[in-house]
Write a structure and sequence with these properties.
Blueprint lengths: L3 E11 L5 E10 L3 E5 L6 H8 L7 E6 L8 H5 L2 E4 L11 H12 L4 H10 L13 H13 L5 E4 L8 H16 L3 E6 L2 H7 L2 E6 L2 E7 H7 L2 E7 L14 E7 L2 E6 L4 H7 L4 E7 L3 H10 L5 E2 L1
Magnesium ion binds next to α1.
Length: 302
């Protein structure tokens, strides 16, 4: 039995129009939070639907929790929580009734947990489903995905429509799910929120994997912007040419430069002067992500 939560090999989906996903090799380990990132039309929803067996691959293989989603779908579905990207909720029942319906479909659901989820997301259970705002419909979808504490959560743009406060509540739920040993595979365009919770991310573009990396490694690769404020005059020549240091310039008593790797040489040189303040900015994943799109050529796989 495979230990991976999701394992795809050469997974491809060709739509009549041509696009979809191509040759996707992806492994999500059990118990990890994995971010699946990419711009509109990249193939995120297509991949997730194949994991759920809502659409079938053109070629390639896919194992989910060690099972084949096509042949063992019923067994698998009980262990999966899915939040679709295009959630359609337009029934005339109220939220409480709909959640009770979802709970009956799932079977073993702890009512106290459903109540807690709804309360934490500030979801009013007396409201009619069809009259809910987009964000509140999204909350119903989130409660429905989490209510049976599934082994694997597949969440397609889970924070879309949520306000910043509710995004944080959601991220707390994701972190708690991981603490309970659940696996979370979530897609997003919003990288800053993924980097807060995910250990690893995959970036997909035009149906192909561009990068799989840990968030930490991505950040490590990134060039830092450093600013050092001295209490006295200094010479830029002391800093230009130092190991890992680039783009050196002076602004009064302040030195600006970039560091791509260890800051050791820079810090030791700076220590020869009196230092008033030192700032080091690591770019967030957002700017790294944009970098991936300007880079052309072979996929970067770490
Ligand atoms: N049913 C379909 N028939 C034909 N083409 C499709 C179909 N569904 C998706 N596609 C195409 O496949 C590609 C991937 O779409 P997909 O919905 O998986 O992207 P996505 O990454 O989820 O995008 P978004 O961020 O906009 O949700 C797109 O070019 C899309 O137009
Ligand atoms: Mg999508």
């Amino acid at each position: 039995m495979t230990l991976a939560a999701i394992e795809t090999s050469g997974l491809s989906k060709r739509y009549p129009g041509g696009r979809g996903v191509a040759d996707l090799d992806l492994t999500v380990q059990r118990g990890e939070i994995f971010g699946f990132l990419g711009p509109n039309g990249a193939g995120k929803t297509t991949t997730m639907k194949m994991i759920l067996d809502l659409i079938r691959p053109t070629s390639g293989t896919i194992r989910v929790l060690g099972l084949d989603p096509v042949a063992q779908g019923a067994e698998l579905r009980a262990q999966l929580g899915y939040l679709p990207g295009e959630l359609v909720l337009d029934g005339s029942e109220n939220v409480g009734e709909l959640l009770a319906f979802f709970a009956r479909l799932q079977g073993s659901v702890d009512q106290a947990w459903v109540t807690e989820l709804a309360d934490r997301l500030e979801l009013d259970r007396s409201r009619k489903v069809k009259n809910l705002s987009k964000g509140n419909k999204q909350k119903v979808g989130i409660v429905q995905a989490f209510m049976h504490r599934p082994a694997l959560l597949v969440l397609d743009e889970p924070t879309s429509g949520l306000d910043p406060l509710m995004q944080q509540v959601f991220l707390n739920l994701v972190t708690e799910a991981k603490d309970h040993g659940q696996t979370v595979f979530m897609s997003s365009h919003i990288l800053s929120e993924v980097q807060e919770v995910a250990e690893r991310v995959a970036i997909i573009k035009d149906g192909r994997l561009v990068t799989i990396s840990t968030v930490a490694a991505l950040q490590q690769q990134a060039v830092s912007q450093v600013e050092i404020r001295f209490a006295e005059d200094f010479s830029t020549e002391d800093f230009a040419g130092l190991e890992h240091v680039g783009a050196v310039r002076a602004d009064g008593h302040t030195l600006h430069c970039t560091v791509d790797g260890s800051v050791d040489a820079l810090v030791k040189q700076a220590a020869r002067y009196r230092v008033e303040a030192l700032f080091c900015h690591k770019p967030d994943l957002e700017s790294l992500f944009m970098d991936e799109y300007v880079k052309e050529g072979a996929p970067v796989v770490h």
